[in-house]
């Protein structure tokens, strides 16, 4: 059998861990089970990552990167500030509806990280990175559209993400509750109200 380097095996194991834990939950994600998912020896997991916490941290980093990519794709190009918030919220909500298992896994890992010292850094990095990219999008959109925010972009971003996380948790853990579009529209309106900006017509290109 051809030798596979740790660099090549790493993304394979991350993918296998995500597939297994998405399907069966974080509790099922032992190194033995993850190795079996990929069809390799358990020792391969430890050789590649060292510990289970190291593998879990890599999984969180992958899921965070995927989420950030979703946030960036959801931001429309050339839209005004208020339209950008609405479009982002609606696009992200579609991913919740279509990829519930992935969101559930990320939340399970975040909760596990609260009690696992080896994962605390990954948890902190996840929230920091998602907040930073959302703040950047809001800042750039407001600047491009000539929209002066009444509150710091970071505060508006954190408010939006906190509300979206709450809606997501309700959707995942209480699917019978009628949140969905009603809650989403309320979050969009509340975020725009918090932003409380004004349109500076002098900064808007003519045409």
From TrEMBL:
Q: Which UniProt keywords apply?
A: DNA-binding
Show the Pfam families listed in the entry. Answer: TetR_C_31, TetR_N
Q: Which Gene3D superfamilies match?
A: Homeodomain-like (1.10.10.60), Tetracycline Repressor, domain 2 (1.10.357.10)
> Which sections of the sequence are annotated for DNA binding?
30-49
Q: Does the keyword DNA repair apply?
A: no
Q: Does the keyword ATP-binding apply?
A: no
Q: Which residues cross the membrane?
A: none
HTH tetR-type domain boundaries: 7-67
Family annotation (InterPro entries): Homeodomain-like_sf, HTH-type_TetR-like_transc_reg, HTH_TetR, Tet_transcr_reg_TetR-rel_C_sf, TetR_C_31
Matching entries from PANTHER family are given as: HTH-TYPE TRANSCRIPTIONAL DUAL REGULATOR CECR, HTH-TYPE TRANSCRIPTIONAL REGULATOR RUTR
Name of the protein described by the UniProt record:
TetR/AcrR family transcriptional regulator
